[in-house]
Amino acid sequence: MEQHQPLDRVAAIQAEWRRERPDVDITPQGAIGRLHRLADRLTEELSLVYGRYGLCEGEFDVLCALRRAGDPYERAPGELATHTMVTTGAMTKRIDRLERAGLVTRRRSDDDQRGRIVALTGPGRELIDRAFTDHMRNERHLLDLLTPEEAESLEGLLTAWLSRMENPHHPGGE
C-alpha cells in the first residue's frame, strides 16, 4: 500500500501495537484515536475564543442556552442542565459565577415559589451575542480546513454514528 502522508501519531502508535500485539485487531484505534486527538485540539481552539470574553466552555454553553431560549432569555436551572448536558451541581457553580459577573440573574419562579429562574441580563445578552458571532467565525475557520465535500461527508458520518450511540436500540437511526 502506498503511503501518501507520513505516519501521524496515531499510525505510529498502531504500528507499535501491531509489532507488540499482532494478535489484537487495533484498526478501531485509527478512528477513535484520531477523534480523541481532534477533540482535544478543537477544544483548545474553541476555548481561545471563550477566553477572549472571560468565559470558560461551560459558562459559554449556559449563556448560549439562555440566548437560544428566546425573549425573555430565561430557563430553570434543571432545564439549563439538560440543554448543556451537565449535572445540576455543576450548573449551580456556573450560574453562581455568571451571576457574580452580572451576566445572569436568579429569581423565584412565578409558577412555583420553590423553583428558580435564571435569566440573561442586558450585558449578558450583549456579551453572548458578540462571543457567539466570534465562535461561529472560529468554527467556520476550523471546518474550512476540509473541502466542502469532506465537511458534508463528515457531518453525515458523525450524525449517523452519534445517533446509533445515543439510540442503541434503533440501529438505523431515527
Question: What would your notes on this structure say?
Answer:
The protein is mainly alpha-helical and 174 residues long. It has seven helices and three strands, in the order H-H-H-E-H-H-E-E-H-H. A three-stranded antiparallel sheet has the order 1-3-2. A hairpin with a 7-residue loop joins strand 2 and strand 3 (116-120). The two termini are 38 Å apart.
SSE map:
Elements: H1 9-20, H2 28-52, H3 57-68, E1 74-75, H4 77-84, H5 88-100, E2 104-108, E3 116-120, H6 122-143, H7 148-166
Antiparallel strand pairs: 1-3, 2-3
Major sheet attributes: 3 strands, antiparallel
Distance between the termini: 38 Å
Structural class per helix/strand content?
Answer: mainly alpha
What is the mean predicted local confidence, pLDDT? Answer: 91
What is the total tally of β strands?
Answer: 3
How is the largest sheet built, in terms of strand order?
A: 1-3-2
Key terms:
174 residues; elongated; three-stranded antiparallel β-sheet; mainly alpha; single chain
Short précis:
With 174 residues, the protein is mainly alpha-helical. Helices cover 64% and strands 7% of the residues.
